[in-house]
Amino acid sequence: MAKFANKVRIGILGASGYTGAELLRLLVRHPGVEIRVLTADRKAGAAVETVFPHLAGLGLPPLVTIEQADWSQCDVVFCGLPHGTTQEVVAKLPRHLKVLDLSADFRLADIASYAEWYGHAHRAPELQKEAVYGLTELWRDRIKDSRLVAVPGCYPTAAQLPLVPLVEAGQILADDIVIDAKSGVSGAGRTLKETSMFAEVSEGINAYGIAKHRHAPEIEQGISLAAGRPIVVNFTPHLMPMNRGILSTIYVRLSNGAQAADLRGTLAKRYADEPFVRVVGEGVEPATRHVRGSNLCLIGVFKDRVKGRAIVISAIDNLVKGASGQAVQNMNLMTGQPETLGLDQAPMFP
Amino acid sequence: MAKFANKVRIGILGASGYTGAELLRLLVRHPGVEIRVLTADRKAGAAVETVFPHLAGLGLPPLVTIEQADWSQCDVVFCGLPHGTTQEVVAKLPRHLKVLDLSADFRLADIASYAEWYGHAHRAPELQKEAVYGLTELWRDRIKDSRLVAVPGCYPTAAQLPLVPLVEAGQILADDIVIDAKSGVSGAGRTLKETSMFAEVSEGINAYGIAKHRHAPEIEQGISLAAGRPIVVNFTPHLMPMNRGILSTIYVRLSNGAQAADLRGTLAKRYADEPFVRVVGEGVEPATRHVRGSNLCLIGVFKDRVKGRAIVISAIDNLVKGASGQAVQNMNLMTGQPETLGLDQAPMFP
Amino acid sequence: MAKFANKVRIGILGASGYTGAELLRLLVRHPGVEIRVLTADRKAGAAVETVFPHLAGLGLPPLVTIEQADWSQCDVVFCGLPHGTTQEVVAKLPRHLKVLDLSADFRLADIASYAEWYGHAHRAPELQKEAVYGLTELWRDRIKDSRLVAVPGCYPTAAQLPLVPLVEAGQILADDIVIDAKSGVSGAGRTLKETSMFAEVSEGINAYGIAKHRHAPEIEQGISLAAGRPIVVNFTPHLMPMNRGILSTIYVRLSNGAQAADLRGTLAKRYADEPFVRVVGEGVEPATRHVRGSNLCLIGVFKDRVKGRAIVISAIDNLVKGASGQAVQNMNLMTGQPETLGLDQAPMFP
Amino acid sequence: MAKFANKVRIGILGASGYTGAELLRLLVRHPGVEIRVLTADRKAGAAVETVFPHLAGLGLPPLVTIEQADWSQCDVVFCGLPHGTTQEVVAKLPRHLKVLDLSADFRLADIASYAEWYGHAHRAPELQKEAVYGLTELWRDRIKDSRLVAVPGCYPTAAQLPLVPLVEAGQILADDIVIDAKSGVSGAGRTLKETSMFAEVSEGINAYGIAKHRHAPEIEQGISLAAGRPIVVNFTPHLMPMNRGILSTIYVRLSNGAQAADLRGTLAKRYADEPFVRVVGEGVEPATRHVRGSNLCLIGVFKDRVKGRAIVISAIDNLVKGASGQAVQNMNLMTGQPETLGLDQAPMFP
Questions:
Q1: Residue ranges of chain A whose pLDDT lies below 50
Q2: Structural domains counted in chain C
């Protein structure tokens, strides 16, 4: 049952970043939408192709400022603005718009936690109550009827998809979770910073934000809900020389007599009908290159040689399932379209 | 006017290489085809996902040997076998099949030239007469009605698209063409060789096959036809650390009073209605990352500081417009489908 | 006290691999040695520069077969042959030679464990008794007087340097160690394999050999010795797109009331006078790019947000401290030369 | 004959960029120098390792502002400041200092040409008369006795070393030279810019600065001197995903009956005794990975299939022979030390 008689009219706030580019890549060939408004304050007045030459010739509207945007032209807005500024911008948007926010500004239900991790009081606490956390496979029913969806962070997506069902099943110890995550550079966005420069990233790897990365409370929010009590996890992100992809190698302690095979069983059952989550066969190692450009999440489960332990590995494309793809998936749900519409690309390898 | 009442049934010979993977990526979401037969001799009996884990879950048929293939199930065959063995294999295929050969075996119309460059006599000289050279934008009319298409090499595609119209227009000197081409590693195929190993390729660049690369006679065949006399060109390929893409920087000498702007005019006019060739604006530098994953060819023209010279640059994805994408484009023509069907992906950046 | 009146005369068995190239890079400017014999069976008769063009012009001897090697010309032999064949080759070498073996063939003191992990009985059990494990900082005194040194594997070096002192100090629980290691591709050697090809490695990451990698028993041998009882550890290696480097992110459970700062203290004290091991300051993240080309091992210690846990990170260049550099370091000890001789290169960045 | 009784005391202006890091890497183990002063205005007060963690532990002096620098402590200053600001800074330095400037500010002897290409009048025209162009192999005698050396640009080094002897010999047509150059990203420096970011560079290549790059007049200055008349060349730089290295593929037209072999002969003879320039054997393709980290320039000459043409290829490490290495080479000359001192590293591969 389509909620929209015609094509859904789309606006994108902050279209000049990598998540913006990825939204455009996905939406230009999405059969159920029309792209009407693109904002990029510093590039207002320019054609999209001056910012993204690869998107030339697609008939996209020109970039405008937020003030210039005519929201009466839109049904749905994707928001790709930086953390911190988003709350105020979204608060000012007309209420007829459905909003998918790709920033962190509405991800933490607890505004005190937001203030602690982001260094300032929440600027739209009323809106926060309305916001739904957009990890589609886990919150599909709430997303469907929501107006404001907080699209999850890339790391939290890759961590929660494998972990939440296992914690819910009581098969792993929620207090003993180690998440070693490796990310491509696009996750850091298009903002200029030394740590994103080619010569600083290529031919190397390092951990960063150790024990203080802002995605930790987001992951813990999901795991705590699953466990029914406050949980703290180890989350250690690493920056490595690739454009796209997150691999999460998760080390868990088994509980209640569960074995690695039981974990695989739980995940396989939970995701059996999911179009975008695939539990790979025994012995198959999930690799980011096998999801590149797609909305897929691969999950593998491995026996550990250490007694009472198992290893769970997930792989996503941080710009697709970890950001823009999941946003489109949620938009499909919110607008009554088939959930997979516009997201049927096979991964691109090599 | 569709030539096929139902979906076109596809077979792929040699499906386990990179061009095979790329064909599958494009064809699995092509609305006008069904994939029926996949051969891969050394992997016969295995599922596609054992060879290409990124193509799991797409309902593809299992890999079989050439002998096991049931060609009555197919209307069209793509052939991704190595050079040399292809002629004999294609010669044995039933005549009801339309064939798109991605090897070099049918690209040189002159079988003496083939013998000279490939080191053995042509093994299917009768078929060669039937073969049509599949550079779509240049030979569309002949391709449409052909049964056997030799899909051009990646380098020759990137070189001929900009050069042929300029030579035909008499605006450049055909005898003074320098083609400096830079290619990603997938162009060398999936066959194991030291020069394709990560540690031998990354963090470096080198020219190879200097003045003796087998794509030289293929390029010269096209330029000679355009010039109406035998032409020899400088063609110098380079191997560089990227997966996909060819950038051809072409140095030409102007003739008949033409200026760089005239060259751009000729190309812009020639390709004005082409969906996959785009002459970029003045000052815009074609980049391989702007065509990644798409069937596009970008062409730019630049004034040279040296009097009487100009620089023409083309960029393609070697696996798409340089191989599998162009093959699909030709297949669409040969089967009466819209030429762009299944090829509407926007480039993937970053 | 120099043991050699003149320069130490060096032979290298298996000089055509990456560890061979790295030995040559280090040894050609080592003031205390002369390179006399280089073997490479399949390349015998060729000049080194046909195998390694970057080593042209250095006056190196030609490649010969093992049979052709004149060992009377050598005092010390480095052995870079594949696992399995090395035991027999080393057993046949004249006893006047000091031997540094870079394969795994003499690393496991327990020949039953060797047989279990390497799939065949040890072929030189008598020699095994003589072999000394060459993790220099931990076994310096035994190495000094040894004739046969088993140079540690790259992963075991990166794991044991931080872990052994902590286990010995009783500050971490030896039974709850998770080692998540990320390696560059040169660690897989120069042998042709699909998983080492550029297009299979670049733009991606995956774990491999999960819970069954052959470096696990080697790490456990060292940890068990430190703990005084048999220990099993989690060791999960990952392959990532860089030429050189290993980063080990190690997750440990604190014991006996120790805090992260205590761990740093223990390591700082242990390695205070070591020229090649540096415990970095609080908050500094070890990165492989900061040791590239050098014999350094960086170690960082971080508080975990999970109570009772800490994170220890080490970074080495797998070809230097993880292989050829450590071999040279040991050779210096064995021949009475200053330990750092020939190993004073600053890291190369970018 | 040493000009300095003791070690040469070194200062580096602008030590926090990539050429600064490379100077430090080379100088810390140079037996004839002591590093006394390091300036980095925005980082003044910090230890070098806060800017370059890979240079920790080497006993380097702290970073200071230019004003804080005590030049009485120095004999020689390397200047790694940006173009434009350098002239004024160098003009204010005490005259007892020998100066090696790595910027472009003193490279163009013709100050009108400088003004045209750099957009402002030369700010130290008197000093310009004193400046010597530091392409060591070509201007050794003048460099030896100079006080101020303009260290050549990376591209001009890679272009002039092969071209100047050929033009001088009259074996190629100076008016028909095409230089297609491919550079690693470190050549763009450490300054933040979008085009230097990992996600904008990796997996792609593009030409830039076409027919207007500032290294063109520098190359032409050298070729014009060799030809004895004003020459304009085609110079087309490309940016590609590697940290270090420049490969110049140079297309030349033969003159006076010369053949490719004659060109090789001329170059081989000219550089026979040069420690850092190597003319490779027939058929050997120069590759940047074979000079990585070294001060070498490799040159290869190839027959072209086009009659009357040849291909000359050079490879250097842009940060060594293309910048800091050549600066050290010149410093050695200027201070009466052996020219190769501190520059004997073998290339690092892989």
A1: 1
A2: 2
In a domain? residue C346: no
Give the pLDDT confidence score for residue C2 in this predicted structure. Answer: 53
Residue written as tokens 């006078």? C273
Whether ipTM exceeds 0.95: yes
Is residue D344 in some structural domain?
no
Give the closest-approach CA distance of A3 to chain C in angstroms. Answer: 39
Tell me, yes or no, whether C56 lies in a domain.
yes
Contacts of residue B313, defined as CB under 8 A and 6 or more positions apart, other chains included, come to: B162, B247, B248, B249, B250, B285, B286, B299, B300, B301, B302, D207
Identify the band that residue C167 occupies on the pLDDT scale cut at 50, 70 and 90: very high
- Could you tell me the maximum CA-CA distance found in chain B, to the nearest angstrom? 62
Angstroms from B18 CA to nearest CA on chain A: 7
CB B224 within 8 A of CB B218: no
Determine whether the interchain pair C345/D345 forms a contact, defined as Cβ–Cβ distance below 8 Å: yes
Distance, CA of D91 to CA of A331 (rounded, Å): 63
Does some domain include residue D3?
no
**How far is residue C239's CA from residue A242's CA, in Å, rounded to a whole number?**
12
What's the mean per-residue pLDDT of chain B? Answer: 97
Domain with D14, as residue range(s), is 8-152+322-334
Q: What is the CATH number of the domain that holds A259?
A: 3.30.360.10
A297 part of the active site: no
The whole-angstrom separation of Cα B250 and Cα B233 is 11
Are B77 and B173 part of one and the same domain?
no
Using CB atoms, list chains with 3+ pairs below 8 Å to chain D. A, B, C
Per-residue pLDDT at D184 exceeds 80 = yes
**Residue D151: Cβ-neighbour burial (10 angstroms; 0-12, 13-18, 19+):** buried
The residue to which tokens 């499906």 are assigned: B15
φ, ψ for residue C12 (rounded to 5)?
-125, 120
- Same domain? For A312 and A225 the reply is yes
Q: For residue B7, count other CB atoms closer than 10 A to its CB.
A: 16
Q: Are the beta carbons of A179 and A161 closer than 8 angstroms? A: no
Q: What is the spatial distance between Cα A349 and Cα D203, in angstroms, rounded to a whole number?
A: 13
- Cβ pair A252, A166 in contact under 8 A: yes
- Tell me the angle at which helices C325-334 and C18-27 cross, rounded to the nearest 10 degrees: 50
Q: How far apart are CA D257 and CA D271, in angstroms?
A: 22
* Helix runs in chain B, H state only: 18-27, 48-51, 86-92, 111-118, 125-130, 136-144, 154-168, 198-201, 215-227, 260-270, 325-334
Which residue of C lies nearest to A305 if distances are taken between CA atoms? C211
Output phi, psi for B263, to 5 deg: -60, -45
In the prediction, which pLDDT does A84 show?
Answer: 85
Mean pLDDT of C94-106: 98
Residues B329/B268, Cβ–Cβ less than 8 Å: no
Contacts of C183 in chain B (CB under 8 A): none
Contacting residues of D for B251, CB less than 8 Å apart = 178, 180, 234, 236, 251
What is residue D78's predicted lDDT score, i.e. its pLDDT? 98
Quote the pLDDT of residue B256: 96
Residues B244-283 have pLDDT tens digits of: 999 999 999 999 999 999 999 999 999 999 999 999 999 9
What are the C-alpha distances in Å from A37 to residues A4, A11, A34? Answer: 18, 4, 9
The residue among B173, B198, B201, B206 with the most chain D CBs within 10 A of its CB, best to mutate, is B206
Q: List, for residues A59-74, the tens digit of each pLDDT value.
A: 999 999 999 999 999 9
Give me the pLDDT at residue B2, please: 53
d(CA B245, CA B185) in angstroms, rounded, equals 9
Residue D156: name the closest of D46, D12, D333, D314 by CA. D314
pTM (global) more than 0.95: yes
Q: How many angstroms separate the CA atoms of A15 and A22, rounded?
A: 9
Asked if B166 and B312 count as a contact pair (C-beta separation under 8 A), the reply is yes
